[in-house]
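Lecture notes, unit on protein representations.

Consider one protein chain, 315 amino acids long.
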Amino acid sequence: MAPARPTVDTVTVYRQLQQFPTTLRGAAVLVPTSKLPMSMNAARWRASRARIARPHRGLYLFADTPPDLEDLARAALAVAPPHAVIGFHTAAALLGFGVVASDRVHLVVPAGKAFPQRPGITAHQSVVPIAPFAVRGLPCTTPARTAIDLARALPRPDALAVLDAALASQTCTPIELAEEVRRHRRLKGFRQASALVPLADGRAECAQETHLRLILRDARITSLVPQVPVLDRRGRPRYRLDLADERLRVAAEYDGSSHLDRERLRADRARHNFLAAQGWRLRYFTDVDIYRRPEYVVHTVRAALGDALREADPR
């Protein structure tokens, strides 16, 4: 089954996700209604004109700029029951592997704890013990727990992208993911997460590359691995291939550059010519191929591998 096509055709690069937490300021000051330095009418007037933020009833955020994710997470914790922690999409974003965006703050609360419905907050009750992990001073689920929670809950292609991005961020290891997934036995989504953990690869660089790899994996094409370096005559890495079989010199690449300028076009053609001269069979796929016709992807890569095998052994 093909992964769902993103709403916007953008390349979800894992390095950019890792940089996101460094852009947060968390500069807003939380002020409960009882301690407002102004009248309620004045506070409501300023909130209605976006001069201050009112994330939840009885709570205001004062800052020179609009509140960011760290500010909203602190506000959510301020109205949450004891022992609640940041989890799922929000924790992943704060940890640097927020592959799937969410416009809500996600909290994890111990099973049995009541949580009032609040706009902008999604609460997940957990029967698995919660071990708080500090991120920017906020109590979050651990990186491995965050990745496994999402791997259980998200569609399968996005679940693998989260696991790849988590490993790429170096916030957790394959062993930690394997240990964590065992703690979720008998929970919904366990089978999916446990099957995907062995496939996770921290060498992957973007979600579309991960989705492409999963299409090939599902077709039992397993010889192509992520980010294979190609060396120049002096033995120095010159290019890297998204997915490649180094022995047969067959590569599959995601082509997300739908609007190339001349400089980029020249660079891409030089790259292609260099790799072709080295004997590489390059096959390029767009978002349309990955999200609308995965059978074409499989057929094309399988044919390239077949041609390479016949050339290697013409008998």
